[in-house]
């Protein structure tokens, strides 16, 4: 059906008009991060689905959609806590588009008036982390627990019904209090005082009642 035939068919013309409106209503798109500003918590995203341009003869040309700039990054956050991720170029995200302009909310928070009447616009996206294409899917996803891990799973923290598993080097800053039995495999190095039941058993401990000879010493003082 050519263009003239479409226009002479009211039902077809209405369908074309609705499809035209729908084509301008942005809901969500996968995208690839071009750059990220972790201080501002925004990113620049290239939509991963191309758009189509029609010429006067209805010939289609596939084109990249424009870059989405200043897209707010959606880190999981609630109360006094947040989970951050080092979002960067090449990462995949899902950009979800607001039904109304987000400019005033993004600048000031709270409840306010939209600065423009635009709706479902490419300017009003949020970068949600992170859908994954088959090209970038995670290897070795575990089915028996929750993990915080790097991509190749050489370092991870795993929570299961049986307990917590940690793989990787650990650097801890702050006091540590634990209850229970400790079992260690490998060398242990301590800098500072080492006590057992209130007695110094470190490198500076002394033994009372020592007399030179073959006898064993008493317990540390």
The number of E-state strands comes to 14
Q: What overall form do the CA principal axes indicate?
A: elongated
Q: What is the string of helix and strand elements?
A: HHEEEEEEEEHEEEEEE
The SS-based structural class is alpha+beta
Low-confidence stretches: none
Query: Rg from C-alpha positions?
Result: 31 Å
Helix share of residues? Answer: 10-25%
The whole-number mean of residue pLDDT values reads 89
Please list the strands of the largest sheet in the order they lie side by side. Answer: 1-2-5-9-8
Largest sheet: 5 strands, mixed, barrel
N/C terminus separation = 100 Å
State which percent range the strand residues make up: 25-35%
The number of helices is 3
Quick take:
The chain has 221 residues and is an alpha+beta fold. 12% of the residues lie in helices and 29% in strands.
Topology:
Layout: H1 3-8, H2 10-23, E1 28-37, E2 42-47, E3 51-54, E4 60-63, E5 68-74, E6 77-78, E7 81-82, E8 92-97, H3 103-108, E9 125-128, E10 146-149, E11 156-160, E12 163-167, E13 195-196, E14 199-200
Parallel strand pairs: 5-9
Antiparallel strand pairs: 1-2, 1-8, 2-5, 3-4, 6-7, 8-9, 10-11, 11-12, 13-14
Quickly list its features:
221 residues; alpha+beta; five-stranded mixed beta barrel; 14 strands; 29% strand
Give a written overview of the molecule.
With 221 residues, this protein is of the alpha+beta class. The protein is 12% helix and 29% strand. It is built from three helices and 14 strands. The protein has a five-stranded mixed β-barrel. The protein has a three-stranded antiparallel β-sheet with strand order 10-11-12, with no helix packed on it. Strands 3-4 form a two-stranded antiparallel ribbon. Strand 1 and strand 2 form a beta hairpin. The longest helix is centred in the N-terminal third of the chain and has 14 residues. The protein is elongated, with a radius of gyration of 31 Å. The N and C termini lie far apart (100 Å).
């Amino acid at each position: 059906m050519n263009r003239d035939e479409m226009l002479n068919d009211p039902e077809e013309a209405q369908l074309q008009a609705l499809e035209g409106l729908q084509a301008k209503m942005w809901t969500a798109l996968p995208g690839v991060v071009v750059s990220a500003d972790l201080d501002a918590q925004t990113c620049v995203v290239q939509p991963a689905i191309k758009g189509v341009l029609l010429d006067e003869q209805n010939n289609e040309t596939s084109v990249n959609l424009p870059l989405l700039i200043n897209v707010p990054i959606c880190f999981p956050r609630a109360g006094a806590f947040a989970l951050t991720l080092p979002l960067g170029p090449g990462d995949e995200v899902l950009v979800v588009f607001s039904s109304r302009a987000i400019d005033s909310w993004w600048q000031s928070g709270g409840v306010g008036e939209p600065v423009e009447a635009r709706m479902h616009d490419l300017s009003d996206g949020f970068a949600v982390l992170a859908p994954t294409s088959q090209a970038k899917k995670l290897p070795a996803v575990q089915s028996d627990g929750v993990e915080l891990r790097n991509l190749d799973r050489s370092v991870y923290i795993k929570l299961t019904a049986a307990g917590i598993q940690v793989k990787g080097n650990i650097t801890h800053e702050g006091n540590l209090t634990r209850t229970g039995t400790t079992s260690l495999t490998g060398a242990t190095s301590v800098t500072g005082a080492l006590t057992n039941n209130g007695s110094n058993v470190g490198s500076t401990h002394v033994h009372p009642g020592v007399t030179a000879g073959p006898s064993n010493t008493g317990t540390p003082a």
